[in-house]
Amino acid sequence: MRYDAFFVASLLLLSATSASASPLDDGPARPGEWGFRPADGATLAVTPPGFAWRPQKKASSYEIEVRGQDGPRLYRGIGFSVFCPPEPLPPGDYTWRYRSVTGNGERSPFSRARRFTVPRNAAAFPLPGRKELLARIPEGHPRLFVRPEDLPSIRDRAQGGGKQAFRNLVRHCERLLKTPPSTDEPAKYPEDMVRKSEAWRKRWWGNRVKTIRVLESAATLAFTGRVSGREDFRDLAERLLLDAARWDPRGATGFFYNDEAGMPFAYHFSRAYTFLHDRLSETERETCRDVMRVRGRDMYARLHPHHLWRPFSSHANRAWHFLGEVGIAFLGEIPEAADWVWFAMNVFRCVYPVWCDDDGGWHEGMSYWMSYIGRFTWWAEVMKTAVGIDAYDKPYFSQVGYYPLYMMPPGHRGGGFGDLCARRRSSHAVPLMAVFAAQAGNPHWRWYVEAHGKRPALPGYIGFLHGALPSVEPEAPADLPASRLFEGTGQAVLNETILRAEDNVQVLFKSSPFGSQSHGYEAQNAFLVNAFGERLFIRSGRRDIYGSEHHRNWMWHTKSVNSVTVDGKSQKKRSRLARGEILEFHASEALDYVSGEAGSAYGDRMKQFTRRILFVKPDLVLIFDTLIASAPATFEWRLHAPHPLTRHGGGTARTEGKNAAARVDFLWPDTLQVSVTDRFDPPPRPRIRLTEYHLTAATPVPSRSASFVTAIRIRRAEDEESAPLSLTREPAGFLVEGSCRTGELLVLLRTGDGPLSAGGVSAEGRVTARIAGKGGKVLARFSSEEGLEEEF
Q: Quick count: other Cβ atoms within 10 Å of Cβ 26?
């Protein structure tokens, strides 16, 4: 690649910049910042890139120079600290740099030049300029989900292929006529109410529920009345809308006061408004504009410009597209609405999604994936209808359905790591998967939907509109590997099969570059085990309210997950600095392997915590931990289960559920002090009735280092227990031997640099494994840091 000419040209232009210009802060991104995009040396999946840079304090606009082999392109008058050009860049090597412009026209020096490459297979995904994009939005109404010219075909569908779904909508609206929701304004918190108390929680969430009940009803009535011609539906919709318009926009449902009420107010109100626009008087429209002018300004003030550079606030990651809906509905009626639409489009193109990589994972877990990505599908449809941009052209959305497919095979219970995941089931992902399968044309995702049997139609007008999505022929994912690494979020999913949870044993491992921030707060190098459709080894606790004593001091603490504490102390709690890293991942039919490093997650307390997991399919999980502390310490190996954990001898524990059972053998050290309790410290609030079991295997005396070798043998509850493995200590490591389902297993675990061998096998990496059948025939073998090789 030829960059020399680019750098020379960049330096010449830099030296020509006025010495009196404002300085430029081009320092490296810090934790919690989005970072410079594209990063120096990046190879892109789409063209053009979504550029992002550090916002400058005195900037009123920015300029970007993009220099390729055909010379420089200079983009001026950029209002945000992100930018996507309106045309693709041809394949080739480029540099880019930016500068700020003050209100009086003073330009800063250019930033340093950063390199990127557009490969030939990059997908074209430009963002039209502001003027062109806004011109695509219809002048008339409706504008959200439906354009005015779509109404005749929607009415035809309501009488044709979507007749049953539309009848359900009509019946729902008729029930609303009989028992309309109360429109009394939700009350604020009393002055003496303790924040986060049970009374506070009831009022906080209750105001959200009431807001949705009023305004979702208004939007549903307005849509159904517009399509059917039922004026009685529209009469009630108008009353609900105008009653809600009288609520104080900075009162109990204000965005700053309670954003869980303020966000649904914004988007449901906007939808009801655009569906009712033709029958509202100008005075009534002005009433609606007045309230949404205040609410929209408050949302924009919270999001802009902060979210463009520090986008990792959880709620902000849905608020931005709700603001986009407000902007589209009120474009041309509220002066700032155009800014809100343009802002939302730039967030989508340059700063979304944040909790993932292009591989389809999600840092905050399945529950928040369903919640946030589910709401995003609304914006995807709004955006496509209003401005003709297809969200599914983004690389992430071409992979999005593989996350539930691997994490939650059909019949699976438990949503993996992440807040509120414990009670998730695979069936909960089906409505979203149906949308993704249709939008992406993915037969495997459609198979996932069909594998759950007959599913109820999605409710509401959005469900009715979804009925028009194209059909896709299902295809079982038998051609896909059973295990998968979601590298961007540091989660490895090791499966026996992804076809049915009742036949599957799954090991989920986390060592994440996102750390333990937000709703993905579990500690690094933690694992979970599901077997035969049942949760076997879990992350423990239940959120009673976000930030409660139990939530902060149990669930955010490393002691609540299957990881390791040091002197009883946690990794950094709920911190973006508590990072881990997947070091290796290999998958095959017989042996899966993953390793992760999480020493830095403990701050200065630890120099190394390397966890290596070998999954000998389908029934053995071998865990090899290497720990080095900064000072002598005790190490506590933690394990949690939803069913009783019982000790059997010094180094063995068992657990058994309805479908699955496991024997846990602490092969090394042989001096561990093992204890089991069913108590939480601190416990959840009394309304949460939860019993779980917590095992601690602690080293007896402080030491600078420790190695743990732990074997988990998994079986169906009705099956006999397999024979335990044996461990032999050698100067350079450990030899682990025993039988497995497919043959005789030999594993060599190296702890030093010296030679380690047995049975004709020499350790080459830290973990070397062999499965041999009758007559010593090698059925499978593996060596870490070397790759995977199998013979059958």
A: 18
